[in-house]
Amino acid sequence: MSTILVTGGAGFIGANFLRLLVPRHPEHRFVNVDKLTYAANLASLAPIAERDNYALARVDIADEAAVAKLFADTDPDVVIHFAAESHVDRSILGPGEFVRTNVHGTFVLLEACRKHWAGRLDGKLFHHVSTDEVYGSLGPEGLFTEETRYDPSSPYSASKAASDHLVRAWGRTFGLPFKLTNCSNNYGPLQFPEKLIPVMILNTLERKPLPIYGKGENVRDWLYVEDHCEAIWRVVNEGALGETYNVGGNNEMKNIDVVDRIVELVAEATGADLEELRALKVFVTDRPGHDLRYAIDSSKLQRELGWTPRETFESGLAKTVRWYLENDAWIDAVRTGAYRDWIAANYGDR
Ligand SMILES: NC(=O)c1ccc[n+]([C@@H]2O[C@H](COP(=O)([O-])OP(=O)(O)OC[C@H]3O[C@@H](n4cnc5c(N)ncnc54)[C@H](O)[C@@H]3O)[C@@H](O)[C@H]2O)c1
User: How far is the CA of 110 from the centre of ligand 1 (A)?
Assistant: First the structure.
């Protein structure tokens, strides 16, 4: 049995990861290490919260003393590091928290691993979950490979790039066993409604304007969140130590085409008038430093570890729209802040 610390396990990808892996692997103990920021939602974890092999530790990864105590209490074998401030727009408004959590928090975790595992590194692993945004922007041609030079544009991507460098440096300098995955844009159930796809689904349902940056020409490579989670688990178990694997969906889409498809799916599912929904689109001033195109070459992961995404963009988006239509309680709680009150009441003084 291994003890696996999953940082940021109450966020979008971390919660999807735990919901998939905790029931499937009763032989492992999963500890969700999360500060429970605005982006966390414990309601997302309700299906696994009572499982014997799952526990929650409310810990800020940038708090050295709290992390040292966590390591002493849990004696982990593996750390899968999802925790981060993750929203690019927020990083432009207030970059400080991004440097604190994404850079300093990663440093604190690496140091905790180095100290706690000193002299007994066999079977230990630090898996760092990162983004393709570290590579910067592509022109109309080409793909990001694992060898692409880092060239981040936003405070978010710069903080993730810094954390990737720290992980590799701790590997080379201190021999820390690590692996790294850089993934393209994720979408799917449980995503906080500040990111493109859930914002567009919910605004369409509520007949609110659909704000599209610039002309909607920016291209992203979309991956269904469960495909990302399966890729991480494959790399954790079968990937080579010290290696980086790019994860992507081969689903390049312009933002405007994503929005158009969402509008069509919502119209189909609810019987709403398609033209009325299309008229909700509004073009707004572009984000400063907005990268034009991301596209990822994940052939290394496919070739070496046999991973392929299960969902196409069409099937994954249809599932996602259905999920947001069927989960009013989750959405209402996130939007009204009711879940924040619940966290304060239940965890406020811990
Ligand atoms: N969402 C994407 O499209 C995407 C794509 C590639 C990589 N990633 C990476 O995957 C990871 C997870 O992304 P996400 O979309 O689930 O993010 P998210 O914002 O939904 O969740 C982040 C989680 O981290 C927690 N957290 C934040 N600061 C913390 C701190 N100081 N200590 C402990 N916990 C803290 C939050 O409470 C939240 O539960 C991030 O590292 C992100 O960079 C995301």
Answer: 17
Q: Is 132 a residue of the active site?
A: yes
Looking at the domain assignment, is residue 302 inside a domain?
yes
Q: How far apart are CA 139 and CA 119, in angstroms?
A: 47
Residue 346's pLDDT is 66
Question: CA 31, CA 52: separation in Å to the nearest integer?
Answer: 11
Taking only the tens place, the pLDDT of each residue in 209-247 is 999 999 999 999 999 999 999 999 999 999 999 999 999
Q: Is residue 240 part of a domain?
A: yes
Distance 255 CA to ligand 1 centre (A): 22
Clarify whether 227 is annotated catalytic.
no
Residue nearest to atom 22 of ligand 1 (CA): 11
Q: How far from the centroid of its chain's Cα atoms is residue 181's Cα?
A: 11
Cα distance between residue 188 and residue 201, in whole Å = 11
Question: What digits encode the pLDDT tens for the residues 40-83?
Answer: 999 999 999 999 999 999 999 999 999 999 999 999 999 999 99
pLDDT lower than 50: segments of the chain:
349-350
* Total tally of structural domains belonging to the chain: 1
Distance 228 CA to ligand 1 centre (A): 13
Candidate of 82, 89, 223 to mutate for ligand 1, largest count of ligand atoms within 8 Å of Cβ? 82
Does a structural domain hold residue 330?
no
Q: What is the pLDDT of residue 350?
A: 47
Instruction: Provide the 10 A C-beta neighbour count for residue 151.
Output: 13
pLDDT at res. 287: 85
**What local confidence, expressed as pLDDT, does residue 72 receive?**
98
- CATH number, domain at 123? 3.40.50.720
Which among 54, 156, 245, 294 is annotated as catalytic? 156
Instruction: Collapse the DSSP code of 212 into the 3-class scheme (helix H, G, I; strand E, B; otherwise coil) and give the result.
Output: strand
- Structural domain range at position 160: 3-191+222-251+290-312
Residue 160, ligand 1, Cβ within 6 A: yes
Interval between CA 52 and ligand 1 midpoint (Å)? 25
What is the bridge-based pairing of β-strands 185-187 and 178-183? unpaired
